[in-house]
Amino acid sequence: MILSLTILYVLTLIYLSITERFRNYASIIALQGWILLAVALLRLHALNWAELGFILAETLLFKGIIVPKILFAVIRRTKINRVRTSGSSQAHSLLLSLAALAASASVSYYVADPSVNMVFFGVALYSLLSGLILIVLRSRIFSHMVGFLVIENGVFLFSTAIGVEMPLLINTAILLDILISVLMLGMFLTKIDHEIHVDDADALTNVKD
Amino acid sequence: MIIYFLLSLAGAALALAARSKRFIALAGLFFFAVQFGLAGLLLGGGRTGETSALFFRFDESGLLFYCLLCVVGAFVFVHSKAYLKENPLKEYRLYFCLLMLLQTAIAGVYFSDNIAVTWIFLEATTLCAAGIIYHRRTAQTLEATWKYIFVCSTGIAMAYLGILLLCSVAEGGSLSYGALAERLRTGNPLYLKIAFLLILSGYSCKMEIFPLYTIGVDANFAAPSPASALISTGLVNAGFLAIFRVYRLMAETDIFGWVRSVLLIVGLLSLAIGALFLRRTNNYKRFLSYSTVENMGIVAIGLGIGGIGVWAALFHAVCHTLVKSSLFLQMAVVRQVYDGYRINRLGDYLSINKVGAVGLLLGTVVVLAFPPSPLFLSELMVFRGIFAAGKWWLALVMLLLLCIVVYSICARIIKLCYQPNQDELHPSRADRALSWSALALLIAAMVLGLWQPAPFRELITVIATL
Description:
The complex is a heterodimer.
Chain A: H1 2-18, H2 22-43, H3 49-78, H4 90-111, H5 118-137, H6 141-162, H7 167-195
Helix pairs in contact in A: 1-2, 1-4, 1-5, 2-3, 2-6, 3-7, 4-5, 5-6, 6-7
Chain B: H1 2-17, H2 21-44, E1 51-52, E2 56-57, H3 60-83, H4 89-111, H5 115-133, H6 139-169, H7 177-184, H8 189-207, H9 214-222, H10 225-250, H11 256-280, H12 284-305, H13 308-338, H14 349-352, H15 354-367, H16 374-388, H17 392-418, H18 432-450, H19 454-464
């Protein structure tokens, strides 16, 4: 079951590399939130009820509902629906994403150490690379925000692999994850759009040498 | 440590709730009484090495950098009061509250004895620093704040992935540095390498080294000058200490040689970027920030060399704290006079503010590591380490880059002091008392260059012992 969910998670990352519509971005982030909820439920059931309840509630409310809602609100408010056409093509993006997937799988397979969950580590690494690719290739600030959320989701996925042994790690990460994401999304929604315009990252070039 | 946090937070809360600027000064007095109280307790009470509240330990490295933080923080507070005196109360009190919170979070990084807790406090510094960077509430500061939060959060997320990997290699148990060091000895080398790379890349945004150095430069540019003095020293040291603790963990493993090579490359790249951008920038605050990148590059090279280089790296970081904070505080006075930082416009500072100009010229000599600069000693030791390791190519590249640094810094600071002023500029009067106080930090650094007290040398030796 967990393996199927992680494969589904990988598919969402591949889809993220080819889609150009922001609505799809927001939907994928929501889907990832629900996948992570299921993975957390299956992986961490050995935790005590208070810790498990906190993690599940955070994943459901924050990753599954609130963050996607904010993303949809940003799309409605800014009326921007697609990544810029001048950005890199879908084929390039897909190729890079598949190369990242191959690299992540190779690293995990090559080391194959019993101390580390190979599947979770490989997927987390792929998630990190996918997020970075999204940030580097796409020129709109919205895509950068989604890239950051993808990285956060990857880190969360990997933390569930060792969450039973070290619940402190996963709990603190979640709390700060919420704090930073809310700050960033809030700032994005209330300040950036008003003063800089969210059209594209080219607007963010006043602070330079 | 819990009492320290509660009292520090109380100081910050008092500043936020203040109804007058005078009350903020009193809150500051209370806050610094707490800071110096803890420093006194640790120095006088012989509590070095003690554990507190499970996750904290008053070790030598934390103590050394904490004492520096207290001194620099107090100077920053006093200079900020003068720098922001025209600001409305609402912005003024928020700034001081965030400044106190930032200093508390940095202290948390210094004393944390748990890899996850170090990460938490580093993340907390991002939140506090972001508020300070946005202080002026202009489009430029908003852009810098957005970039700072975005890049730091991405970097910190990467570092967290590295920490998770390190913890899985350690196969559960305590996350304290001591316990991790024991368990990592037999860890899978490739996983350890990936973990180190992720942590180094992530924390580089705080230490202002390659690859995420840009964000520190932008932050220093947008934040008020006195706050830049804290960001460019206290916060940079927090990043340094976080990396240094992981470096010590790796010293116990088989990949230590590889780790040192990575640090050499990162240090050299940082030095090169710093040297090249010192020539390019047209803003004095960005200019000083690139100097921080260059100096932190030298620190990373020291760690990469190992042996005597580690001692030199620590000594360099300590002295750089005093020198750079002095220069940023002098720059705050420059802003008072010219209302700007543009290199190609400002000049004639020597005739406007002699004390400030002497402070800047002296600061130039010290930051360029000419005797009696303490940085001369540390750089000399780094070079000794390089020659002992037989890495002549590294010494040659470093010398070339340092020549560029010397030329760039001299040209820029001499311009500010001697070039004729622009006709349309209307310089204001300078507050000489502030220039004198900034100069005091520089003199302290120069004293360290000429004479290092035995306990201070021993302290660094203990920290440098891997």
